[in-house]
Amino acid sequence: MSDGAGSRMGVAGALGLSVTSSVAIVICNKYLISTLGFFFATTLTSWHLMVTFFTLYVAQRLRFFEPKPIDARTVISFGLLNGISIGLLNLCLGFNSVGFYQMTKLAIIPFTIVLETIFLNKKFSQSIKASLMVLLLGVGIASVTDLQLNLLGSIIAALTIAATCVGQIRRLKVSSTQLLYQSSPYQSAVLLVTGPFVDKLLTKRDVFAFNYTVEVVAFIALSCSIAVCVNFSTFLVIGTTSPVTYQVLGHLKTCLVLSFGYIILRDPFSARNVAGILIAIFGMGLYSYYSVAESRKKTEAAISLPVAAQMIEKDSAPLLGAKGSPRPENKSEDSFDYMPRTAKSAFTGR
Prior knowledge:
Layout: H1 3-34, H2 41-61, H3 72-95, H4 98-106, H5 108-119, H6 126-143, H7 151-168, E1 172-173, H8 176-203, H9 214-240, H10 243-263, H11 271-304, H12 307-315, E2 335-336, H13 345-348
Antiparallel strand pairs: 1-2
């Protein structure tokens, strides 16, 4: 099998694992919330990250991978930033309407594009921008309802977008496993400390006073197990594609969750929801088509360049290029950019 075919299979596998695990965790967490009354999203996410770390620790002890030294200050700042991002996303939902919260999530894509353009000198074609606009329009029609504004909620939303985008485009030259293994303790620590307070602020309930029956504990354990796959696949998707592609995949999962709720759970559904989902899927199709086409053009251009020019191209390769685009080949160290799943998104498939 050629390297190109293997890379495409790897990307497809990462995308498939991300979608499958996300749908599975939605089913599990919806039962936790709706049936068992466990509303403590931030605390649950801290447990997700903690279980993920211990799972990778066991894998490391069994020699499935070898830990590699990473600058401690960089990893700690990365973990703390992403932990803060998760907390802010939950506060954003708590202090804003659901519609405004959805708009905040939609705003992450254009702000990510702006940051990558300014700070990373990455170029986005007009075709890519147009397809993303169609996608965002469709998701907005399908998911955004009311748009109630307030000053505190707007400030939290702005901080949420900033923290999420900055954490998403951070560059760390380690593999997905290494990055997840070394950063998850810090993300978990932030949420373990702040989670109970955030949850109490948002739900008016105390996580420590909750009645933990055998059924509740069993579903929490199941949720944490699925979260290992969710977190790992998130790193894989960002590592093999780009933050913008990951956001597109997240909106696809939003559409799948809406469809799942209607078909299986008989949630209320309107013609507006259907139209929005269809527009979003069309936008995703356009984005995928133009991304693949541009990736092929870059690959063909690199092949046709003289060897010296290819060396220059590799040195200046974009940080978040598609898998098929020219970029530095390094088997032991790959550039991965990660935006963590939020506590709320663990309940909505994002």
